[in-house]
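Put briefly, the fold is written as integer tokens. One such record reads:
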Amino acid sequence: MASERTGAHAVMAATGLLENPCLFEESESGMGSSSSNGASFQPPNHHLNPAWIATEYLDFCTRYPPPSALYLQKHLRWMFRSKLQPQQGMNVNGSSSSMSISKRKFGAVDFTDWKPRLWTFLVRPYLETIEQYQQIVLLYLKHSHRDAGGNTSTLSIPPSLQDLAARFPDPTFKFIRHGNLKNEN
């Protein structure tokens, strides 16, 4: 047992678990999204991929709805933080800036890049449904699998999002913002 080896009485892992609920997963077969037929598929290192973690979280939210969309927003921001949040004090080219903190925080970030744009998009008040957040995960997957030339590499879509991806193959910020999913049936 860890407490016997370290002498520690407790461990604080709250931030780490918000970012990656699979933090203490011991095997590759521990967690995973199931497809509609009950089969489970997980790519290698799925527990390190925020899209797969977020998809599993959203699957649970579908079964056990949270009290408000704010819960979805906060949890997904923690899950995508390491991949999307712009680094404070970094210029677009990645070098350190000598600007004031407020200018470094907002002025040095290229919001035409999809990562900071998706990061700030996650806090918009018009995101109200689980389906909109699922579309955000699909948008993340689409952009994260593009090479420098804009070509999409082989995309591994979690099973529970495959129907949604087939109905809406090209998610965009505008599409998600207008909540078109709420009107589709």
About this structure: DSSP finds ten helices and no strands in the chain. The two ends are 52 Å apart (CA to CA). The longest helix spans residues 69-84. Residues 84 and 115 are 5 Å apart (CA to CA).
